[in-house]
Amino acid sequence: MMAEANYLGISGSGKFKITQIKSPVIIIEVLCTDCPNCRIAASWVNEVYEEIQARPDLKEKIKIIGIMQNNSIDEVDSFRARFKVPFPLFPDQNSTITDKLGVEDLPTFIGVKNTMTEQRRSFISNPVRFGFGMKTGF
Hints:
- The protein starts with a helix and ends in an 8-residue tail after the last helix.
- It has a 5-stranded mixed beta sheet with strand order 3-2-1-4-5.
- Residues 128-138 have low confidence and may be disordered.
- The protein has helices at 2-8, 36-54, 73-83, 96-101, 127-130; strands spanning 25-31, 62-69, 89-92, 108-114, 119-125.
- It is globular, with a radius of gyration of 14 Å.
- Helix 2 links the parallel strand 1 (25-31) and strand 2.
- It is of the alpha/beta class.
């Protein structure tokens, strides 16, 4: 989609590398439509996105993308619509990307320092493990 490409600062369509995203920091959320904790987290991740976008000093410095493990394009589109996700979501039907990232729990957040030529993973966190943002008492 053109809006997603504009948000990420990439040109063209199809596959791209994280280093092509024009942002020094990228937050990658790994989630799945079948994951109840991913559905719970959806609203507060949307809030984080909105807070970043509302700050001129951050909006071009931090981008959020979602990688949807074991989900088809239709499932991703349905999740996006149901939870009103404003940032780009990408299907990972066969878990190829999430396996490379070493993701074990969902949802997982990976912070990447992006120097446009390489990436460095700055943090990896599963908020469910620590109870962050969960209103259900996990």
